[in-house]
Every structure is written in C-alpha cells, then in structure tokens.
Amino acid sequence: MDKFKITGGQRLEGRISISGAKNSALPCMAAALLTPENVTLHNLPYVRDIITMRRLLEDLGCTALMPELRTLNINASSVEIFEAPYELVKTMRASVLALGPLLARFGEARVSLPGGCAIGQRPIDLHLTGFEKLGAVVSIESGDVVARAKRLQGAEIDFNVVTVTGTENLMMAAALADGETILNNAAREPEIVDLAELLNKMGARIEGAGRSCIRIQGVKQLGGAEHTIIPDRIEAGTFIAAAAITGGALEIVNCNPQHIHSTIGKFRDAGVKIEQPNAFSLIVKAADHTKPADVTTLVHPGFPTDMQAQYMALMTIAEGTSVITETIFENRFMHAAELLRMGAKIKLNGRQAVVEGTEKLMGARLQASDLRASASLVLAGLAAQGETIIDRVYHIDRGYEKIEEKLRAVGAQIERFRD
Ligand code: UD1
C-alpha cells in the first residue's frame, strides 16, 4: 500500500493549478447513460473515483474512450446490463448515480446498496423514495436496490434533508420522465448546476438548478453533448489551507472563486490574506498569526463539510481556541484522533470539536481514514516539525490528482513510497 513521507516545516510558495471537480465529473459521467449518442467530457480530474466510474460504465456496456488526457468520450448505445455490482459500489458510493439514468432510460436498475462508511451511515432513502414518487417500484433484493418502471411520471418531490447526489439522481431520472417534476429543498451546490448544464445541452429542460426549487419538464429522449467540468472547489480550498498552514504564499489558478465564497470568508476570518486578481485565480498569503475562528459546516452556500478536516488542521496551530461544528455527517471527526498524535489539542463532544491551538505540531505515523481526513493529515504533516508518515493514501488518491506532485512543485518535501 502506498504511503506518504512528509518532512514538515517548508514554506510553500508558487503557483498551483486546480483540476476538474470529481464531484461534478461523476454525475456527468453517469448522465451519459441517458442517451445512445456520444457525450464528451473535458477537464476530468485524473483520480481513482473517475477510473472507477469509467469501469462501471464499461461494465454496463458503454464505450468510454480517452482521445486525450482529461477528455472522455462516452457512448451508451449498447448498454445491456443495468447493474452496478457490490465490488464497485463498496469502493465508490457515487456508483448509486447510475440508478436514476438506468431506471429512466431502460426502466430497470439494480445497484448494490452502499453500506455505512467512515464518516457516517449515509443512507440513500431519499433517492429511493424520490424514484417511487416518479412511479418506480423499488425493492431491496439480496443487498441490492432494484428499481423498475415502465416509464417514469413527473411528480413533486420534497427532500426533508438536502442531499447532493439525491438531487442529481432525481434530476437525471426526471429529465426522461413524462411531464413535470418539481424538486423542493434541492441541493444548490455548483456541481448540481454543472450537471444541469450538461443535461440541458443534451436536450433536457431543467430550470432553477442552483436554487432550492428545481423544475424539470421531462422529454422523450436526450442526445449527445460536449461539456467541460468545473474546477474542483474543494481542491482549491485545500490549497488555501496548505498556504495558510505552512506560512506560505500560493497563487491558485484555474479555479472558480465564486464557488468558494464561504471557504474564502472563513480563512480570511483566520487572518489569511486572500486576493482575487481575476475570475479564475486567487492569491493566498498566510497570516502572520493564525487567528482562531469558529466554523459550522452547512449545505451550499455555507461552509462545506468537505473542507472541515482541512480547516481543523489549520486551527490546531491558531493562537487560541476555536469550535468546529459538523452538521452534515454524524461521524466526521476521524482525523481528530490522528491530529492528537501530532500534539494537537482537540476535544470532541458529539458534533463539536473544540480545538485549542498549539505552537507546533510534531511529525508522527498516521493512518488516513477517508478522503478529506487524509488531506488534513497531509496539511498537518507539512506544518509539523520532523517527519510524518501517512498510511493508506489510497483514500486521498480517490479525489486529489497527484497531490504530492502539486505540493512538491511549490516547495513541499513529500514523497510517495511503498514498503
Ligand atoms: C456529496 C459529496 C460529498 C459531500 C456531501 C455533502 C459527491 C459524490 N459526494 O455526498 O463529497 O461530503 O455531498 O456535501 O458529490 N442523507 C439521507 N438520506 C439520503 C441521502 C442523504 O439521510 O437519501 C443524509 C446524509 O446521511 C448526510 C446528508 O443527508 O447526513 C447529506 O448527504 P448528501 O448530500 O446526500 O451526500 P452525498 O451526496 O452522498
């Protein structure tokens, strides 16, 4: 298994380019199942989850050719299998995004029910009740979700919890349903807007993506399209944290600052200087003295749960005490125990973490537990005195493109090795 060895204490300086958003690319790839025509996606990040989704599409019978790096040509004209097996779903929960498109286009879908994961139970009940509202018959058979419908019928769906992939799954299914679907309390993340843009290019009639009420007029069929995936806002936020925690200065390019208002705001509260010279880049300079600033994770446009672990890493070296409240997932403080091993002072109390800043973190041997937790350990390792070894970095490879190469290019001492 791959590990990272980090020698901390290097100040990062230089320019880092942001890759395409994994969480936008995954639903956009699944959307290609909705049409027999070609869907071409550009700016895909080169990360493990994208490779897994490509494999899933190929297993279903799609061709998915890569004419050049970061571009994928997907054709779903000869799909004959409507099933996402356990082996794939267990490595990537986003495999459930195949449900909506398969059900809408072929009237049948079988996807292994994802279990809980490191950050919580993560049920998909809202996806399933949504499909039922659209007229599907949904059952659980041998651990799989099985959904069937002759043709989906538009309906009004009220989400009682805001769900990102749930909104995406229902939006894709409703695009091919008969009549109008209204999604109330829909997720508003930029990835929802990106997916809606792709679907509309394919001929869908979706209005309101990015707001909490989305209206979809179903169409008989969808066609091919070409689309460029938006930049990864969480990767951009992670590099803001990297500059901040190493006392560094980074120019972050090919990002979309509009998507990370709340992240920028919170790092500014902590004293980080962030300028936006144009619509695609940020200039980040660490604070002379990092200030403690409380944060609560919220649905978009609030502070993202996917940035909570990285922000906590910064707060461990702030000059004072901060309170971090996680409202989206019930068990998303796995990184705290590892940060404690580096000398951080963190007290957990249910969904709250009280972080008392300490002058210096110390290098240690650490275990990555999930994607964003791993990123926070890398950040802590960059700031720590001495050597940090991080085990199980396959978690980070799921969603960060060559993070060690990007960090090395701006002065970090980080190596990948296997023993
Ligand atoms: C997506 C992101 C993930 C991010 C999360 C929250 C992708 C591929 N992943 O995950 O990186 O951390 O949004 O921003 O885009 N819930 C239910 N029932 C459901 C669905 C969700 O109770 O049917 C709950 C979840 O347990 C969680 C909350 O709703 O507490 C939000 O989850 P959701 O937005 O669905 O997360 P994902 O779409 O899985």
What does this protein structure show overall?
The chain has 419 residues and is of the alpha/beta class. It has two domains: 2-18 and 232-418, UDP-n-acetylglucosamine1-carboxyvinyl-transferase, Chain (Alpha-beta prism); 22-228, Alpha-beta prism (UDP-n-acetylglucosamine1-carboxyvinyl-transferase, Chain). The protein is built from 14 helices and 24 strands. The protein has helices at 22-31, 48-60, 86-91, 99-106, 125-133, 164-175, 190-201, 233-245, 261-269, 308-315, 334-340, 371-383, 394-397, 403-408; strands at residues 2-7, 13-17, 38-42, 63-65, 72-75, 83-84, 108-112, 137-141, 144-148, 156-158, 180-184, 205-207, 213-217, 225-228, 249-253, 273-278, 281-285, 295-296, 321-325, 345-349, 352-356, 365-367, 387-391, 413-418. The strands form six sheets. The chain has a four-stranded mixed sheet. Strands 2-15-17-16 form a four-stranded mixed sheet, with helices on one face. The radius of gyration is 21 Å and the shape is elongated. It binds uridine-diphosphate-N-acetylglucosamine. Uridine-diphosphate-N-acetylglucosamine binds at residues 23, 26, 94, 120, 122-127, 161, 163-166, 305-306, 328-329.
Percentage of residues in strands: 25-35%
* First-last Cα distance: 7 Å
Give Rg in angstroms. 21 Å
Low-confidence stretches: none
Helix content: 25-40%
* CATH evolutionary superfamily of the largest domain: Enolpyruvate transferase domain
Name of the CATH architecture of the largest domain? Alpha-beta prism
What is the CATH topology of the largest domain? UDP-n-acetylglucosamine1-carboxyvinyl-transferase, Chain
Major sheet characteristics: 4 strands, mixed
- Averaged pLDDT, please? 96
Query: With helices defined by DSSP (H or I, 4 residues minimum), what is the helix count?
Result: 14
Helix/strand-derived category reads: alpha/beta
